[in-house]
Amino acid sequence: MAATAMPFEHLGEGLVTDYFIVREQLTDEQWERFRVTRRFVDEEVLPAINAYWEPAELPWPLMRRLAELGLYGEDIVGYGCPGMSPLARGLVNMELHRGDGSVGTFLGVQSGLAMKSIALLGDEAQKARWLPAMAKLEKIGAFALTEPAHGSDSVALETSARRDGADWVLDGSKRWIGNGSIADVVVVFARSDEDGQVKSFLVEKDMPGFRAETMVGKGASRSIWQAEIELDGVRVPESSRLPGGSTFKDGPARVLVTTRSICAWGALGHAVAAYDAALTYSKQRTQFGKPLCSFQIVQERLVRMLAEVTSMQLYCMQLARLEEAGRLSDTIAGLAKFNNTTKARQVIAEARDLLGGNGVLLENHVIRHMGDIEVIHTFEGTATMQTLIVGRDITGVGAFV
């Protein structure tokens, strides 16, 4: 490897990010989840991920390993799922995103969106059928909410569901659906023609009228596939409707509260990766006869990066505490997502700049995070939408239109 390249083996060695000593607050279960996931990232993800990311290929060996490590299902209890605490789940997501955003997002879609929808909204038969298989990655799931004309205003979705005897017939289009083209089952949200409310359905890949096509040309999160989905008269039995999701609020909105907090943890992982790469590089790279880290301006930049990373950690720790206590709201989760994705973008940009030209090379593990953080910053509610949601909460005035 060229002298200017930074071998992945050294990433993590300079990770002095527990500056406020939060490690002491972790239980044995939380620490073990963190330790196992960190070792997986260092030994298996970092050495391999660039070879998947550049050609936009799915990292199947890494995705299967998540099942072997018992990570799918995260905080779901029973059905072969690990039943993690909120903090353990957050630490796992942080570490996976420290390795790669695509790997972290695949876990997020499979567990946090698809499996969590079934766990929260499904009946016992639906849970028993799908969750054990999904925890083993024998079945893959997707979450189809976003539409071509409805992203931030997904509450106005147009995909329709009409009764036809004992079945429902679904028509419409979905876009940006993670895992959509490889999923065995897709959680589809559609508006009932009976009461105008958004209902939740389990659509299987072999149902007539269901088509999914992988989207191409992405410049970020290249190792997870998003799909465009067409629903043309898809007939779904009543037994495939998720009974707990009979309105938008009870269905997708309920699921997304938890996943937005996980977005904050994922953003922290990307920021930690960038900070670690910058610190490691500054110690290795020599200019003007001495290491970069010996220059005052470089140290000042590193300290500012560390300050942002540390504040993001504290946000995430409090999120976990609130969720554990049953007090996590959509506005708190939204504020954390807004803060952490915004700060992570700044930290990663600083790291990319500090590495100079070497910062745009995949082998130095910064530019990949620079692209991938844009995905987390955007999905499950953009920073603009989170601002409006929290703004309405603190002022009592809606400013959406």
What are the segments in which pLDDT stays under 50 over at least 5 consecutive residues?
1-7, 11-15
Distance between the termini: 54 Å
Global outline: globular
CATH architecture call of the largest domain = Up-down Bundle
Mean pLDDT over the full residue set: 93
Tally of separate helices: 10
Total separate domains: 3
CATH homologous superfamily label of the largest domain: Butyryl-CoA Dehydrogenase, subunit A, domain 3
Short structural summary:
The protein has 401 residues and is α+β, with helices and mostly antiparallel strands.
What does this protein look like?
The chain is of the alpha+beta class. The chain folds into three domains: 8-135, Butyryl-Coa Dehydrogenase, subunit A, domain 1 (Orthogonal Bundle), CATH 1.10.540; 141-240, Butyryl-CoA Dehydrogenase, subunit A, domain 2; 252-395, Butyryl-CoA Dehydrogenase, subunit A, domain 3, CATH 1.20.140.10. The protein is 48% helix and 15% strand. It contains ten helices and eleven strands. Strands 3, 4, 5, 6, 7, 8 and 9 form a seven-stranded mixed β-sheet that branches. Strands 1-2 form a two-stranded antiparallel ribbon. Helix 1 packs parallel to helix 3 (86-99), helix 3 (86-99) packs across helix 6 and helix 4 (101-121) runs antiparallel to helix 5 (124-135). The protein is globular, with a radius of gyration of 21 Å. Residues 1-7 and 11-15 have low confidence and may be disordered.
